[in-house]
Amino acid sequence: MKAIGAHPAVIKKIFLMESSFICLLGAFFGTLIAYLFSYGVNMFLPLLIEQFFHEKPPENFYFSYIPVTLPLICIAICFGVTLISGLRPAVRATQVDVLKALRRDL
């Protein structure tokens, strides 16, 4: 990118945008899987308790509950860690010598 005239700040932004996109994808799918597991536990665990212990669990009792704020906090922490960890490669990419990057050893 530097060889075709991109400014170092633009290169840094591209690296950070890519790491942020990966973060948001991971956070979205992680949250989705967590909610699916929670839903599955809440659906099947009462059936297992009834079958093995011959007792019915209390009404409106959840074995697994994920409040809405928990995924939001996790996404915010994940986003912060991603920006911090993506900053070093972004800075290193802006400091690469153009001739060394284009040179190939055959």
List keywords for this structure.
mainly alpha
Describe the protein in words.
This protein is mainly alpha-helical and 106 residues long. It is 73% helix and 0% strand. The protein contains three helices and no strands. It has helices at 8-53, 69-94, 98-102. α1 (8-53) runs antiparallel to α2. It is rod-shaped. The model has no long low-confidence stretch (mean pLDDT 87).
The pLDDT mean sits at 87
Give the class from helix and strand content and strand pairing.
mainly alpha
Question: How many strands appear in the DSSP assignment?
Answer: 0
Shape: rod-shaped
First-last Cα distance: 22 Å
Number of helices: 3
Largest sheet: none
Query: Low-confidence stretches at least 5 residues in length (pLDDT < 50)?
Result: none
Indicate the percent of residues in helices. over 70%
- Give Rg in angstroms: 24 Å
Strand content: under 5%
Q: What are the secondary-structure elements, in order, as H or E?
A: HHH
Task: Give me the secondary-structure topology.
Blueprint: H1 8-53, H2 69-94, H3 98-102
Short description:
This protein is mainly α and 106 residues long.
